[in-house]
Each structure stands twice: as C-alpha cells, then as structure tokens.
Amino acid sequence: MSDKAAARETAVAAADETCPRCGARRQPDQRYCLDCGLQLPAVTGRLAALRRRWIRRFGWYPGDWIWISLLTLAIAVAGAATAIALTTSDASAKGQVFTATSGPTVTQPATVPTATLPTPPEPTTTTRAKPSPAPQNGRLTWPANENGWTIVLVSYPKTGGADAARQTAAQAAKAGLTDVGVLDSSSYASLQPGYFVVFTGIYGSKSDADAAVPTARQAGFGGAYSRQIAR
C-alpha cells in the first residue's frame, strides 16, 4: 500500500473512531460526543459507506450534508436544461424576423497639435528592498508565542495523518478560505494532544472566530468550529 493510500485509510479510521469536532475517541454505537456534546455521525449503513469512499477518493470529507447538496444541484441542473430546451423550441416555432437598421454615424475626433504639448518628466527609479514572501495559503504556521482563536476544520491523528492534513489544508485554500495551515495539537495546552489540526484564520476573540464559522462550513467543511489556541 502506498503512503498516500495508507494516509487515507488512517483518515477513514479517524472519521469512524473520533469526534469530527474535537477529535475525542468514540464508540461505534455512541450517539453524542462525551467531550463537546456534538451529535455524532453514524458509522454503519449506506451513508457511512459513502463517507468512507469519499475519503479514500479525495483524502478529506466536508460533512454528511454534501449528499443533500449534490441531489439538490442535480435537480436544479435538470430543471434548467428543460427550461432552455422549451425556450429554444418556442423561439424556433415563432419564426421571428429581425431587420438590421443603418449603422451609427462616426464623427472623427478633432486633431490636437502635439508640438504644443508639455514634455512629461523622466521617471525616476527608486530601489527598494524586496519584502519577505508571505507563507503560502495552506501552509501557514501559527505565530510563535501568540495566543488567540481559530476555526478548526479537521483533526487527524499524528500517526500517519500528516499527508492527509496537508492535503486537506490545500483543499481548504483552493476553496477560498484564508490563513489556512496545520498545527501540532501537542504543542498547545488548549488542545487535545496527538493530532494534526487543520485550521483557518487567526482571531483575537471568540466572537470574531464564531462569526467566521459559517464561511468555513459553506466552503465544504460542515464540522468546522471555533477553538482557542493557547500554549
């Protein structure tokens, strides 16, 4: 098995055995997380099988709501195609005839003598030091010695979860989320140790982080939630 496949199998196991919000361990028949109170997704049945296939294919999972969204999108596309077909058929049946009118009259602009125009000054060149490149979105690191709040997108167990975490961070950046990166939960007292945490945003207060949670969920991360980051 390749490293990529092994990382995705680890992500599948994490989705079945841990809470998607806080990463706490769970039992297969457990309905609610004992740490954060989240209603846990089922790990048996057709929906759970679809979840595992998605993770094995893409390396990340937006949430169970994606299947309802895809069904709604398919219905909307079918309706739009039907409406276009009916409109085209109706226009062809009417056989409308359009008559072209005469074109607009073009007026030549007045000629301005260039000899009287002032000569622009020569541009001056100022040498400036190039700024240090900012970290690429998706590879942001949490600022050293700084506490604050962020939005947790997905957590992966550190054992074999590094590749899956980086792939999810890149996917989040492509989805338009800003200040996306991965941090090691073992380095922060406010987090449960042993996980690679994919995050987006650096906020000074919980209210600011909470206000940005809907944006993260609309980008495909239905389990996103705000969390304090403190050493």
Query: What strand line-up does the widest sheet have?
Result: 2-3-1-4
Structural class: alpha+beta
**Unreliable segments (pLDDT under 50, ≥5 consecutive)?**
none
CATH top level assignment of the domain at 148-229: Alpha Beta
- How many distinct helices? 5
Total beta strand runs: 4
Main β-sheet description: 4 strands, antiparallel
Residue share in β-strands: 5-15%
In CATH terms, what is the fold-level topology of the domain at 148-229? Alpha-Beta Plaits
The CATH architecture assignment of the domain at 148-229 turns out to be 2-Layer Sandwich
* Whole-angstrom Rg: 27 Å
**CA-CA gap between termini:** 37 Å
Overview of the structural elements:
- This protein is an alpha+beta fold.
- It is built from five helices and four strands.
- Helix 1 (3-17) packs antiparallel against helix 2 (46-58).
- The longest helix has 30 residues, at 65-94.
- The mean pLDDT is 81.
Keywords:
Alpha-Beta Plaits, 4-stranded antiparallel β-sheet, 5 helices, 4 strands
Give a concise summary:
The protein has helices at 3-17, 46-58, 65-94, 162-174, 206-218; strands at residues 148-157, 180-184, 195-203, 225-229.
List the helices and strands and how they pair.
Elements: H1 3-17, H2 46-58, H3 65-94, E1 148-157, H4 162-174, E2 180-184, E3 195-203, H5 206-218, E4 225-229
Antiparallel strand pairs: 1-3, 1-4, 2-3
